Structure formats: structure tokens, C-alpha cells
Amino acid sequence: MAPGIPVGVGIDANGKIVAGAGVSGVIGVVLPAKALGQDEQVNVLQDADLLETGFTPGAVYYAAAADGAISTDNTGTRVGTALEGGRFRVRVEHYG
């Protein structure tokens, strides 16, 4: 996970947070402040606002199952909507 880039995450078979769906499906978004090492703790966002993302206002964003990349391609899990001023409203619903 690259610093400063939001990514969709899931849980793997060992209970660890991974980029992409893992075995759980995409359950949230992580915005790492630095390069993450193995076994570092992170906050997984399901209901939050991220500032200064550069995302296109009004666009709906999805996280890809394979790697968690967030884009407007409607091929993954819906993770939020971009608002004015580069703000990204994260809203991830996961039932499992």
C-alpha cells in the first residue's frame, strides 16, 4: 500500500488486513501515511471523510477485488463518493 493513496482492503485467511478483497470481500478503505510493514496496525475506514484526494467531484468510486485500487470503474465494491474540494466520503457497507 503506497503512502497517501486510499486503497480498498479486506481480511485474509489469517485475519490480517490486505489490499483487495482477501477472503472477506472489501470491508473498508485504508489511507496509509507511510509505507506499511508487516504486522503494523491500521485504521480501516467504513464511514469517514478523506480530504484532498484529487478525486472527481460527484463521481462514485469502487475498490477492485484483486488489489484494492480505487477508481470509477464499476467492477468492484462501492466504497464512496467524491465531493467538492477533493473530499472523498467513504461509505462501505459489508455484511459477513
Describe the structure.
The chain is built from no helices and 8 strands. It is globular. The two termini are 24 Å apart. It is 0% helix and 32% strand. With 96 residues, the protein is mostly beta strands. Strands 4-8-7-5-6 form a 5-stranded antiparallel beta sheet, with no helix packed on it. Strands 2-1-3 form a 3-stranded antiparallel beta sheet, with no helix packed on it. The protein has one domain (7-34, 42-91). The chain has strands at residues 7-11, 17-19, 28-30, 47-50, 60-63, 70-71, 77-82, 88-91. The mean pLDDT is 91. Strand 1 (7-11) and strand 2 form a beta hairpin.
Brief description of this entry?
By secondary structure, the protein is mainly β. Helix content is 0%, strand content 32%. It has one domain (7-34, 42-91).
Radius of gyration: 12 Å
Task: Write down how many β-strands occur, each being a DSSP E stretch of 2 or more residues.
Answer: 8
* Portion in beta strands: 25-35%
| Proportion of helical residues | under 10%
Mean of all residue-level pLDDT scores: 91
Q: Kindly give the count of domains.
A: 1
Q: What can be said about the biggest beta sheet?
A: 5 strands, antiparallel
Tally of contiguous helical segments: 0
Strand line-up in the sheet with most strands: 4-8-7-5-6
Shape: globular
* Series of H and E elements: EEEEEEEE
Stretches with pLDDT under 50, minimum 5 residues: none
Structural class: mainly beta
**Gap between N and C termini:** 24 Å
